Amino acid sequence: MREHLIWPALAVLALASPAPAAEPPHVKDSSFVEPNGERVLQESIVVEAPAACAWKAFTDEATIRAWNAPLVHIDLRNGGTIEESYDAKAVLGGPQTIRHRIITYLPGRLLVLRNISAPPGLPGADLYPTIIQIITLDPLSDSQTLVTLSGAGYGTGDRYDKLYGFFRQDNAEYLASLKTLCEPAPAVGAAAPPG
User: Burial level of 86, CB count in 10 A (0-12/13-18/19+)?
Assistant: First the structure.
């Protein structure tokens, strides 16, 4: 079962950590360690669609409800919030939602978040507010977008390792799902590519 926090960056928690899985195809991991020893978790994917589709997947309530989370409220402004839950019975402001403060954004290009609260069960949940989440959408052409999810500020130690591991898998799955959402399905009856 795929549940994510972002996310998304933005998203919701599995109560038990699944076993590590292979990274979904097409997801590139360019994570690195800063000179001060903090880690940056950075994963990206190329989506064969305009940046507008990915932007809606992160910021449009109707798109998020249809695709990802039945409960969502977005106050899209600097200092605003994104609140989501994958639990259809959850209520806004309740313990089963994840809330992020919008630090800043550039429409269609950039969304920077800091967690305010998360549902119970996230490994290292008390450290999550120390992570800055950066979502960047880089148009490569009119019909191709590089989508990158970055999490900056992962320290050292077992609790940070668990939080990092959770999001490394979850963000990769989220990006693969976003690619499926935004890319047009092949036409019915279309010829298979030569193989």
Answer: buried
